[in-house]
Amino acid sequence: MLLARLWPASPTLLVAAAAAVKVNPLPAPRNITWASSSGPKQLAGFVSLRVSEDTPDFILANGWNRAWDTIVSLQWVPAATEGPFPSFQPFPTAAAGVKRSSQALPTLQFVDVNISDVDADLQHGVDESYTLEVSESATSVVIEAPTVWGALHAFTTLQQLIISDGQGGLIIEKPVKIQDAPLYPYRGIMLDTGRNFISVNKIYEQLDGMSLSKLNVLHWHMEDTQSWPVQIDAYPEMIHDAYSSREVYSHADMRNIVAYARARGVRVIPEIDMPSHSASGWKQVDPQMVTCVDSWWSNDDYALHTAVEPPPGQMDIIYNGTYDVVREVYNELSSIFPDNWFHVGADEIQPNCFNFSSYVTQWFAEDPTRTYNDLAQYWVDHAVPIFQNYSSSRQLVMWEDIVLSTEHAHNVPTDIVMQTWNNGLDYINQLTAKGYDVIVSSSDFMYLDCGMGGFVTNDPRYDVMSNPDPNTPNFNYGGNGGSWCAPYKTWQRIYDYDFTQNLTDAQAQHIVGAVAPLWSEQVDDVTVSSQFWPRAAALAELVWSGNRDEHGQKRTTLMTQRILNFREYLVANGVQAKALVPKYCVQRPHTCDLYRNQSVIQ
Ligand SMILES: *[C@@H]1O[C@H](CO)[C@@H](O)[C@H](O)[C@H]1NC(C)=O
Ligand SMILES: *[C@@H]1O[C@H](CO)[C@@H](O)[C@H](O)[C@H]1NC(C)=O
Ligand SMILES: *[C@@H]1O[C@H](CO)[C@@H](O)[C@H](O)[C@H]1NC(C)=O
Ligand SMILES: *[C@@H]1O[C@H](CO)[C@@H](O)[C@H](O)[C@H]1NC(C)=O
Ligand SMILES: *[C@@H]1O[C@H](CO)[C@@H](O)[C@H](O)[C@H]1NC(C)=O
Ligand SMILES: *[C@@H]1O[C@H](CO)[C@@H](O)[C@H](O)[C@H]1NC(C)=O
Ligand SMILES: *[C@@H]1O[C@H](CO)[C@@H](O)[C@H](O)[C@H]1NC(C)=O
User: Fold this and answer.
1) Domain region containing 25
2) For residue 200, what are the contacts with CB-CB under 8 A and spacing of at least 6?
3) Residue range 523-534, pLDDT digits in tens
4) Quick check: is 590 in a domain?
5) CA-closest residue to ligand 1 atom 10
6) Catalytically active residues, by annotation
7) Residues with Cβ within 6 A of ligand 3?
8) Top EC class per UniProt (predicted)?
9) Which of 50, 310, 316, 343 falls between 20 and 30 A from 24, CA-CA?
10) pLDDT at residue 63, rounded to an integer
11) pLDDT of 353-368, one tens digit each?
12) For residue 74, is it within any domain?
C-alpha cells in the first residue's frame, strides 16, 4: 500500500538531514537518549534481520520486511522537525552541499533481534516493551524485547529513525539508545461498520496507521440497527439486512482482518451491541426477538421516542427465544475472533421501545413494582452467563450505561470492563470507585465523529436566515448544528486530556487504556481515514508515553512537530490522513503557535 513517489524534498530539510537530525518518532519513546555524535551512520544497501527464533507465522521476518520495504521505497525526509526556538530566520534559497557522514565508520548491515519469549500470545497485557540501540561503531541495530509484539514496536520506531541522505542513500543518527514500553495495555480506535459499510481494504488502511502509531486494539462495532454486514453460518438470513450482497464480511474476511492485524501487533475486539441497538439481522432470524423495529423513532415528540437515532430496535429481554439466537451468534463469532476480550454493547436502553413488546408489558403488569432497572438486570442475569460460558479466559466489555445510566442494572459483575463515554472525568471517577476496570472513550475528548452537523433529514432548524436573538445561540448560529457532541475534537483536545486527574492511585490502576470511537453515520470508505487520522495518533502517544515531559510539564507544543511529520508519514504510507495546518507551519516550527510563550499549556 505504499505510494511509490514522494514530493521532492525541500532543500532546507535535506540540509537538516545531513546536519544530523535527531528524528523523533511518534509516539515519543518513553526514554530516548542521544549521545554526542560524529555524524549519522550510513546504511548498507540491504539491512538483514538476524533472529534466533521466529513465530510459526513469521511475525518478525514479515514485520522487518514490511519496515525495510517502507524505508527503501519512501526514502523518508522528515517533513517537520523540531527546530530551535524562535526560528524565524529567512528561508535558505539554495541547497547547500550535503556532506556525507564520516567515511571510516562501518555501515549498518543488520538488525539483531533477541526475544526472550517467542511464544507469548497477542492478548491483553502481553509485554510490549523493547530496547533499541545503535552504537557509534556497531554494524547492527540491537533490539531486545520480551516478545515479538515488542519487537514489532521497535521496527516501527526504527523505520521512522532511518531517513534519506538526499543522495540516494539512507542514514540513521547515532548513537541512540531507546527504552520503551506503553503506559497502558489497551490502546485503540473504534470502527463502526453498522451505520455505513467500510471495505476490508479500508480496514487494512486503518490497521496500517495503527501499527505505525503503536495502537494495539481495533474495537470493531460490527453492526447496528441500520445494517447487519456479518456472515453468520448458523443464520445465513442475517445478511439479508446488509446494504448489499457485496457489503458483507465473510468468515474469510474477518479471519483475514484478524491475521492482518495480528501481523502488526493489533488485537481485534468485536462488538455485537446488545440488547439495545438491535434490529437488523436479528429480525431476519426471529422477528419476536426484537421490538419496536417498525416504530417511529419520534424525536419530534420526544415523550414517545423509541430510539436516539433512526431506525429503532432493541432485543426483547423477556422473550425466551432471544437468548437462543444470541448464544448461537455470539459463539460463532467467538470462534472467529481469537481475542479473549469480547464487547457485548449494553448502551442506551430506551424504555419506550419496550411498550411495543407484549412480553415486556406483560412482565411489568405481573408485578407493578418492576422497573426498567429490573429489566436491565434481567438482561445481565440471563445474557452474561451465556457470554462468560464461551471460555474460562473470556473477558467481557460493556458500555458504562449498564452501570450509570437511568436504566442501569442493579448488579453488574465488577469483572466486566466498562467503556466510559459520558461526562468525562466524573464518570471515570465513579466507575473506578466502584471497582470496574475502565476503557476511556470520553465523548467530550475522544469521539472523532463530533462537530460534523446532524445527519437526520427534514430538519427545519437548518432553515434559518439570520439569528433572531443574538443573546441566545441559535441552532445554526453558535449552536451545535445538530452534533450532540460538538465541537469537533482536534488533536490538541485529545492529547491534552488528563483522564486520570483527581483519581486515587487505586482508581488510576483501574484504567486499562483508551479508545477513540468513530461512529459512522456520516463516514464511509471515502472519509474514514481522514476522520481517524492523524487525530488517532494524538491518542496513540497519550496512551503510549503520555502528554508530559520528565518534569511533569505538558509537552503539547513539542508534540506539534511530531504529529505534523507523522501526518505526512501516514499519507506517504497510504493512510489518507487529513491536513492539520498550512504546510508553512509544517516546515517552520512554532511560527503558527498561538502563544510565543512555550509554557502556557501546563
Ligand atoms: C533513560 O535512559 C538512560 C540511558 O539508558 C538512563 O541513564 C536514564 O536514567 C533513563 N531515564 C529515565 C527517565 O528512565
Ligand atoms: C538475549 O537476551 C537474554 C535476556 O533476555 C540474554 O541473556 C542473552 O544474552 C541475549 N542474547 C543475545 C544474543 O544478546
Ligand atoms: C410505556 O410503558 C410504560 C410502562 O407501562 C408506561 O409507564 C409509559 O407511559 C409508556 N410510555 C408511553 C410513551 O406510552
Ligand atoms: C421462558 O422459559 C421459562 C422456562 O424455561 C418459563 O418459565 C417462562 O415462562 C418462559 N417465559 C416466556 C416469556 O416465554
Ligand atoms: C455452558 O456450556 C455448557 C457446555 O457447553 C452447557 O451445557 C451450558 O448449558 C452452558 N450454559 C449457558 C448458561 O449457556
Ligand atoms: C480536581 O481537583 C481540583 C483540586 O481539588 C479541583 O480544583 C478540580 O475542579 C477537580 N477537577 C475535576 C474535574 O473534578
Ligand atoms: C509563560 O507562561 C507561564 C504560564 O502561564 C508563566 O508562568 C510564565 O511567567 C510565562 N513566561 C513569560 C516569559 O511570560
Assistant:
1) 14-182
2) 249, 253, 256, 257
3) 999 999 999 999
4) no
5) 31
6) 348
7) 303-304, 352, 355, 364
8) hydrolase
9) 50
10) 98
11) 999 999 999 999 999 9
12) yes
